[in-house]
NADPH--cytochrome P450 reductase (Baudoinia panamericana), 693 residues
Amino acid sequence: AQLDTMDILVLVVLLLGTLAYFTKGKYWAVQKDPYATSLANGTVGKAGKSRNILEKMDESGKNCVIFYGSQTGTAEDYASRLAKEGSSRFGLKTMTADLEDYDYDNLDQFPEDKVAFFVLATYGEGEPTDNAVEFYEFISSEDVSFSEKGGIEEKALGGLQYVAFGLGNNTYEHYNSMVRNLTKFMDRLGAKRIGDAGEGDDGAGTMEEDFLAWKEPMWAALSSAMNLEEREAVYEPVYEVTEKPDMSADDDLVYLGEPNKNHLEGHSKGPYNAHNPYIAPIAESKELFNDKTRNCLHMEIDVSGSNLSYTTGDHIAIWPTNAGKEVDRFLNILGLTDKRHMVIAVKGLDATAKVPFPSPTTYDTVVRYHLEICAGLSRQFVSSLAQFAPNETIKAEITKIGSDKDYFHEHAASKNYNIAQFLEAMGNGEKWTKIPFTLFIESLNKIQPRYYSISSSSLVQDKKISITAVVESLEAVGAPHVVKGVTTNYLLALKQKQHGDPHPDPHGLDYAIGGPRNKYDGIHVPVHVRHSNFKLPSDPSRPVIMVGPGTGVAPFRGFVQERAQQAKNGENVGKTILFFGCRNSRDDFLYADEWKQYAEDMGDKFELVTAFSREGPNKVYVQHRLKEKAEEVNKLLEQKGYFYVCGDAANMAREVNEVLAQIISEQRGIPKEKAESIVKQMRTSNLYQEDVW
Ligand code: FAD
């Protein structure tokens, strides 16, 4: 293909960007975002590299910055939505900002006629998300000091007006602690909050509605504080998609799912992390359930060809691709099927808009590899689609669904539609050709890697990572489609390919198993490792009690494997009790045979306690078994034993916490409150650790 001026420019910038990357900021500041090397995303420019938010806002003419602290992408998504809405409804000049990309010691000079938003997820035990750690440490410090006005004493942030929203989960003890603490710290620094600090609750499943309910009064308060005038919301794209009919999808410059430039050029190398996966061979895969109606996969992922390392208790992230059937549906309902392999260049329309994937690329690639097209619907997104409906009748219906919470629930949410299924159902045979593709890039989440608790021990197999994953398949009454989990069905397809299964999926899912340009062929999957604090005691003689029903057993297989190895090595290994629960001993008793081997290796130091909920007359769960073993459990805790819980965050983990407090109270003859505070204390001193999801 002939290169036009634009292409040459792209090449030059790619080259400069790569240089920046490889010189690791020696000659200029390097951005963490690997896509920042592409001109298409527009961040390479005069406003591109600064860690100075004030400068950046000035250069790009912004008066509203929306910082986010995001782990799984939801907070980032809410930040983008606020940015869009602020701009389209109120004419604010908005930008979103990853907290990790900026310094904060100049917030004391934040202009009074501008506003900063903080959209903060609370992670784990009340912790900041990875990208917010530095900000949180800075702002929470007793002797925080800003560049001009000092710190707490001087009310250094007196000129800053801010808006806050938190994303949390009420099943955790430190519910929404990030946003609650932020407002506390901002208060003492004299900053002025606009509206109430919002709190979304993932535990109650009301995150979206909490957000929608919070933002209206917030916008009203902000309008009056900044004298904003509301106008009819018009769609203003943040990105521009340019079709390149003269380029071919086979062109070496075109990204067909390669996550970054190194992968595109075929010489991917570490460090492997959340921006750069390792394409790992799957060494082995097998089915763990005997029950023919459900699947649970055991996989061994070979990382020997990489510099990836893990320690027992870490997580591995799997990067999924969407099922072909859903990719086809999505492209079809938008009328893009014929153009699916058209090369497109995507760029941000201003310097602060990051394109969430590398470009140039194709429609098919964006939908297959980069957008979370299978997730449930957001009411706000649905309402933004009304203006692009195929006709007035559909427009009226979409407007109603978008504006009425109950109607939305009845006609959209309860049907478990993904976006394309929803458009199909609403379109009555009509295609939705008027929706700009950019709207999807802006409104759908970027596809997220899913985490799995590593189910092997690094002492036993340091270059082979095991996972234990139950395949998600959700059939709901009144829902026309079965919801098939994105990643786990992809893994299932990989397993089936590995075993040459001729009839892969009854629901007709199919996957681009070979990956971009067939680079994943031979059964590979993109991964990276995330280190966790979920760890065995360093002294193996300390007792451990593990509670892990279902796939919650995953990390404990690793723990037990490790202690069995230590016992074989002649080390003094303490008592190791595992509470495992499932439906019955026949169908879903994970690793039933392996436990026998570990018991042989460890002798009476290992004890497996099972709870089969559907085997006897009454439902028995791990909590019940824990209670039955109260005396021993308490004794081991008194010997400074470690207590671990893994699996379902919503119910099991909370109940286990309660049962443990009961056990301590009864066994030690102390009041319940005292026992509860002992459990809390155990958590603080890492004697009680959770790995829940
Ligand atoms: P997704 O596509 O993400 O769907 C998940 C669920 O979302 C569905 O089942 C459904 O309930 C809902 N959903 C999705 N789409 C819709 C829709 N259109 N409408 C309504 N509802 C919808 N899992 C394991 O099996 N083993 C582990 O060891 C393990 N360890 C983990 C460790 C950590 C730290 C974390 C955070 C999670 C862990 N998980 C583990 C969970 C895992 O990360 C995935 O969430 C899980 O496998 C589902 O992924 P998926 O892509 O297949 O499903």
DSSP finds 21 helices and 23 strands in the chain.
